[in-house]
């Protein structure tokens, strides 16, 4: 896991109290427009899949189809729409690392808002809450306490949330044998992960960075759907593929596990990018540096996620591939 930063933090609000709202820049409008198009495309894919299943169920009975549509709408609201709503209505802060920067009155008001959020939640220990209460009237002391909390306790908790959702994606997409289902799974789990990170901190990234995250999530989902069609014979050398083919169950198991690990790795990357957008290190403000740092951290986290996934791997996974192997033997 990446080494924890111990540098002091500066907290800026995207829009401050009693100040005019700044117009979004051209860059922000560009990313938001692309993200909006991505959301429309995802909704079209989702609606198309729902209608397709509904038409099949209508052959059984029209009320079965109606019931499915109602359930699909409720699930879409609970798993997609409501988490997105929670993210968007959260206040937007940008936390950046600076050196020897005394907090202004405006920043001090922001510190107090963030402190109140932490005091109302159970993310930090009682000792840390007491430190916040003691420092609440001293801007510099409050800045120091917030730095300690966010660079240690909160960062570790966020990494745990990221790895937990990555494990969910890894297991779900490894078990699933349907590319479209993998797409929806990745989208839903990643949205839930971002929502949980935002709720944990009490603030969200800027609209520009949220738009970039939206594009990242959808791109990852498309990759998850495409991985379903990958054949190990196209990746491994012929001799290795033939040797693995002689071992019962190993090829289908390896193929699905490889898909799951890839999707889990991409999910970790999205989570780390989200954390970096919330806690932007001054040395990693460029998009290239953030992406590189997120990839390096995800490589360090994925072995832990794989180990935990193997420990909790459902027996149904092996039963499913046993049936697949029997079907292959019947065909030959």
TrEMBL record:
It is a multi-pass membrane protein. It comes from the Bacteria. Its main location: membrane. InterPro entries: DUF697 (IPR021147), UPF0283 (IPR006507). Pfam families: DUF697. Keywords: Cell inner membrane, Cell membrane, Membrane, Transmembrane, Transmembrane helix. PANTHER family: UPF0283 MEMBRANE PROTEIN YCJF (PTHR39342:SF1). Belongs to the UPF0283 family. This is YcjF family protein. It comes from Paracholeplasma vituli.
């Amino acid at each position: 896991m990446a080494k924890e930063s111990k540098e002091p933090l500066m907290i800026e609000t995207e829009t401050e109290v009693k100040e005019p709202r700044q117009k979004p820049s051209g860059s922000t409008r560009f990313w938001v427009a692309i993200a909006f198009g991505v959301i429309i495309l995802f909704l079209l894919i989702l609606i198309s899949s729902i209608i397709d299943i509904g038409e099949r169920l209508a052959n059984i009975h029209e009320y079965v189809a109606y019931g499915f549509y109602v359930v699909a709408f409720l699930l879409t609201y609970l798993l997609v729409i409501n988490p997105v709503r929670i993210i968007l209505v959260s206040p937007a802060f940008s936390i950046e690392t600076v050196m020897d920067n005394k907090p202004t009155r405006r920043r001090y008001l922001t510190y107090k808002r963030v402190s109140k959020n932490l005091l109302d939640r159970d993310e930090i220990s009682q000792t840390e809450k007491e430190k916040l209460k003691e420092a609440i009237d001293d801007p510099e002391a409050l800045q120091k306490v917030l730095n300690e909390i966010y660079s240690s306790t909160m960062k570790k908790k966020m990494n745990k949330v990221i790895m937990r959702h990555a494990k969910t994606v890894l297991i779900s997409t490894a078990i699933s044998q349907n590319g479209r289902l993998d797409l929806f799974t990745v989208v839903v789990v990643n949205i839930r992960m971002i929502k949980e990170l935002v709720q944990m901190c009490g603030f969200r990234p800027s609209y520009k960075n949220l738009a970039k995250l939206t594009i990242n999530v959808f791109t990852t989902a498309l990759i998850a759907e495409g991985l379903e069609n990958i054949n190990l014979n196209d990746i491994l050398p012929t001799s290795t593929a033939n040797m693995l083919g002689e071992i019962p169950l190993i090829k289908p198991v390896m193929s699905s596990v490889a898909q799951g690990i890839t999707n889990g790795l991409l999910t970790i990357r999205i989570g780390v990018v989200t954390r970096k957008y919330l806690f932007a290190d001054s040395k990693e403000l460029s998009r290239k540096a953030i992406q590189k740092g997120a990839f390096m951290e995800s490589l360090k986290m994925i072995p832990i996620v794989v180990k935990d996934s193997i420990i909790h791997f459902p027996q149904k996974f092996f039963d499913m591939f046993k049936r697949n192997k029997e079907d292959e033997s019947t065909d030959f």
